[in-house]
Amino acid sequence: MSQYQFLIRRGLQGLLVVWGVVTLVFLLRFMTPGSPVDFVAPLDASPELRAQIARNLGLDQPIYVQYAQYLGGLIQGDMGYSYIRGRPASGIIVSRIPATLELAVAATVVAIICSIPLGVLSATRRHQPTDYAATTFSLVGISTPNFWLGIMLIMVVSVGLGILPTSRRPIGLIPAIELLIFQFETVGIRAWIAHMILPAVTLGTYFTAMIVRLTRSGMLDQLGQPYVEAARAKGLPETLVTYKHALRNTMIPIITVLGLQLGSLIGGAVITEFVFNWPGLGTLIIDAIRVRDWPIIQGALIVIGIGFVVINIVVDALYARLNPRVSLE
Amino acid sequence: MTRNGPILRVEGLETRFFTEEGQVNAVHGVDMEIDDGEVFGVVGESGSGKSVTALSLLGLLESPGRVTGGEIWYRSAELADSVAEETPTAVDGDYVNLLGLPDRVRRTLRGTHFSMIFQDPMSSFNPSLTVGEQIAEAVEAQQRARSNPRSVASRTQGYGLSQYLMSFVSSSRKYVSEESRDRAVELLEMVGIPDPVLRAEEYPHEYSGGMLQRAMVAQALAGEPNVLIADEPTTALDVTIQAQVLDLLDEIQAETGMTILIITHNLGVVARMCDRVGVMYAGEIVERGALADVFDSPVHPYTQGLLGSVPDLGGSSGRLQPIAGNVPSLLDHEMPDRCYFADRCPKAMEACLRKPPELPVDGAAGHTAKCYLAEEPFDESTALPDGYFEGGSTDAADPADASGAAEVASDGGESE
């Protein structure tokens, strides 16, 4: 099967999954108690006003009509109007995507850069101080809850030492880069980096710790394989045996986990975003849940679902590339 | 290079594994001499230390294994010259003691002076690289080792991690040069792989076992080594394919005059390929000599037993005679201070309760055995009774042995 056929087929499967997500998210509203009208209408609203509001929001229609309308809107990129802000939900959600993506990607990149070499060192220097340090770090990293780490970092680094800023960042990556390119001004990018460090560390620690473990056990497994001995027997330097031969095969399962984790970072950064008041999807969702702003909640969840599906397709394609024994079937 | 003397002289090689259960004497006191251009066979049961001997020769032992004693003298005037300055103690004329060289020098010998064929081709190739690339990689490593011995001192041998990382990202950035690739194809053709250009681009799982073993031979030949070590080269293959691979080794040996060390448990392979043979048991070479001498008139009862356990297609001499018992434990504290084979030996005598005589180190052509029977004929009157070693040894007449057994028992009691 060619790569394109594979992508098309996986794309169609992905669409099916997204449809499932949409349906579930839509039904969520009917499964939770309380009507959005309670939040939108004034406390002393008359029954007539409440009925009027419900009619305006389209809540008086039967459920299947609402569903059809919602689906029809989605196809055109319309996620409805925010109950509270009175603006299209899609616009609000899209404006929040870059911040979340930047955080997720930064955390992942930091995690990959730190964890894979650490895992390899840990495996090649088994039962030496490096190994003990790495395994201790990964145990601590896996057992530390995100929100606690975030709060501690803020307390120590921002409040205590006063080195890095704590909350809402002034500028996104793209405007910062524009500023850098067109005006040779580094203020933007520096601010961006300063605001990114703590959230990325918070979000990336668990991730790093987990990949260190995976890399270590994978490498130990691969280094015991006969082909490693054969590679040494033909005179390859140890660095090449480790990084070219063993690591390549270790990466195959790690890529899968990386992909799944990146997906969950996009959705699961909610707590970290909230702790750092990060202007991303996570904060948006929490704010929206507080006021039952359903179009925003639904839209954001759907966007996260789509992100997950896309990342999985990319991972599968990459997997086939790394592992020749898997054909794209 | 002078023509006198063997190319490889192993003296008292001792390899131990330091495991949690205790020290395992996988190889203790192996002596052998291998002449230039001969095919030497090392034969023995699994667990007799054959493979460990091979790995010790190449310096490929992994922790917890370590060579703890002995010398491996390898004749190469070129090598002797190049290492004479750095490690003068390891050089003696044209001979170099491999165990006296630093690890990085030993690495440069792999592939160029010594190369190895492994038992299972399917697991001895990296599954995620093409066969051609893996052979080309060997070509390249060995060219580097030859052309610039200094570069091999670096950890990456001039490869560079960035180049490696790029090869991950873009498939057009190949890790090995075109010349090495061409050479790989040439090597594949040499070992009789059809369509070598296409096959070089295939992955190991797309090969059959026999083809892959050929490819492994090609890889081993990449650096034109002087000594080829074949560790059970045919064990994982079908019988018909086995013959083909042996033919191939034969041809290559005839063409290049390479010295081949074959390690196998298969007496048929030895009989077909080898000029001389050493029989290994419990980490020792117990009998050694020219193929015809050892096979036609074996001295050591173990060799006799091995030969007796091979079906004979010609004459129907009745039932096969298996050797009773199992390979002994090689744990240091469990190894008895006697001939290690005595407990399985049908001709065990009282003399066998002492260490048998060592094999003479040289005497390359001679036929010798580490057994009292080599010196005197079997004497019925001193033969040990049946079941002597089966737990009843403390009641036996020999008081020295009885105390030894009691010691072992009390040792066990303390550790519990």
Q: How would you portray this structure in words?
A:
The complex is a heterodimer of chains A (329) and B (416). Chain A folds into 2 domains: 3-75, no CATH class; 96-322, MetI-like (MetI-like fold, Orthogonal Bundle). By secondary structure, chain A is mainly alpha-helical. Chain A is built from 14 helices and no strands. Chain A is globular. Chain A has helices spanning 3-31, 36-40, 47-56, 63-75, 89-124, 129-143, 146-160, 173-183, 187-223, 226-233, 238-268, 270-275, 281-290, 294-322. The mean pLDDT of chain A is 85. Chain B has 416 residues and is of the alpha/beta class. Chain B folds into 3 domains: 1-113 and 226-374, P-loop containing nucleotide triphosphate hydrolases (Rossmann fold); 126-225, no CATH class; 385-416, no CATH class. Chain B has 14 helices and 12 strands. Chain B has helices at residues 50-58, 77-84, 103-109, 121-124, 131-147, 161-169, 178-190, 196-200, 209-221, 239-256, 267-273, 291-296, 301-308, 399-415; strands at residues 8-19, 22-34, 39-43, 65-75, 91-92, 95-97, 114-117, 227-231, 259-264, 276-281, 284-290, 368-369. In chain B, the strands form 2 sheets. Chain B has a 7-stranded mixed sheet, sandwiched between helices. Chain B has a 5-stranded antiparallel sheet with strand order 2-1-4-6-5. In chain B, a hairpin with a 2-residue loop joins strand 5 and strand 6. In chain B, helix 9 runs parallel beside helix 10 (239-256). The longest helix of chain B has 18 residues, at 239-256. Chain B is globular, with a radius of gyration of 24 Å. The interface between A and B is medium-sized, with 25 and 44 residues.
